[in-house]
Amino acid sequence: MARARKTTTTSRPRQGSLAAALDRAGLLPGRGAAITLVALAAIGIGALIRATTPWDGAIAAKESEWKIGISANRHTAGEISFDLANKGTIPHEFLVAKSNKTGAELLAMVDPTTNRIDEELLDVVDEQPEYAPGTTALLTLDLAPGHYVVLCNIEGHYKNGMFADLDVVAADGSVPQHAAKTPAPPATGAIDGAEKEWEVSISSKLHTAGDVTFNLKNEGSIPHEFIVARSDKSAEELLALVDPATHRIDEAILDAIGEQPEYGPGESKSLTLNLTPGHYVVFCNIEGHYANGMRADLDIADSSGAAPANPPSATTIGGMQSEWQVATSASSHVPGEVTFNLKNLGTIPHEFIVIKSDVSAKDLVAMVDPTTHRLDEEKLDAIGEQPEYAPGESKVLVLKLAPGHYVLMCNIEGHYANGMYTDLVIAEPL
Questions:
Q1: 3-state secondary structure (DSSP) of residue 354
Q2: pLDDT, tens digit, 9 for 90 and up, residues 180-231
Q3: How many CA atoms lie within 13 A of 261 on its CB side?
């Protein structure tokens, strides 16, 4: 189905874009400006990760192998401009589709034959067709309130991670329509679980807190196991924690509640656990099984039946570092003593620094010194660090963290700018 598009290709910062704002403020690399957190706040970039007010400016969108990064995940309804840049080495496209499912949930729609999502099954609003590496484009759309997924649907690109979620809200900031739907009531009986090559399926993904019994059956042709871990991240997000050497997640970095050890094909088992409200991931962690799809999400609701809102973790946070990312098992934690169980999965040394910042990790990229290719740590509120440690090594870092927003990073030359950072929120449970 043909769709009308408003697209522009350009190579310079456009009015209203983040790059243009930095240019006008004299903060683009090479201008010699002293970029500080105060300066960033003054020009209105670096909103708190927990901010609830929607964004009103253009959305900067960077595409590369294999991700789409957008400068805002929440925007006011109306005319929205997407400031697109292909930062990769191959062509990409940019589609905007309205959906009541998240980008991760739409992975199930990828056709294994074409390695694409059939666009006839999507409510595509408009798109920027394929554009070349190193080029930019502008896509302007009139979007009504609701949930949207932005994506690249070139063969293989979506399933490799090229998607992001966007909520478009009414002028008063009210919740998008898709999020206001009444959820199904939580289950109260046993949960039936089936495992096979390559999936874990459960009869209910929402259950009341308390004793939960999993009636399990191995329907596959090889042994499987069943692990229940608490995490505020989805099963798809935890894929980043899979060790490329062992093809497993190091269970020492997870908040594992209990498990059914390996059981044979055709066998049935029962596992009963006491689960408090929150988000959980159920999975098989035998070599290669998690990455191949043996994982599922489970939400545990409180006594009122309300679905949890990913309450902060009360235990340790697992952290994995590699070229080029910092991945954690949780993005939030309660105030007080926080233990980071760290592992270097890369091929070169890394470090792990925790700083308190009102600016998001992505926005701090603007502060990287183009000469040293590092952040000036004298300008940061560093709380603690794990100094350089070698590939394959594991370390433990324990810090006392007050409520607020933090950035976890590696600041070795060139590492931050290449993506070695993530955000952490410290807050009391709601």
A1: strand
A2: 344 456 777 899 999 999 899 998 888 888 999 999 999 999 999 999 998 8
A3: 0
| Residue 368 DSSP code | S
Give the separation between CA 65 and CA 88, rounded to whole angstroms: 6
Can you give the pTM of this predicted structure?
A: 0.52
Scanning the structure block, which residue is given the tokens 């009341």? 208
Superfamily of domain 191-301: Cupredoxins -  blue copper proteins (2.60.40.420)
CATH of the domain spanning 317-426:
2.60.40.420
Instruction: Write the burial class of residue 152 (CB in 10 Å: 0-12 exposed, 13-18 middle, 19+ buried).
Output: buried
Burial class, 313, CB count within 10 angstroms (exposed 0-12 / middle 13-18 / buried 19+): buried
Sorted by where each begins, the domain ranges of the chain are 7-17+58-180, 191-301, 317-426
Q: Side chain identity at 150, as an amino acid letter?
A: V
Superfamily of domain 7-17+58-180 in the CATH hierarchy: Cupredoxins -  blue copper proteins (2.60.40.420)
Type of residue found at 378: E
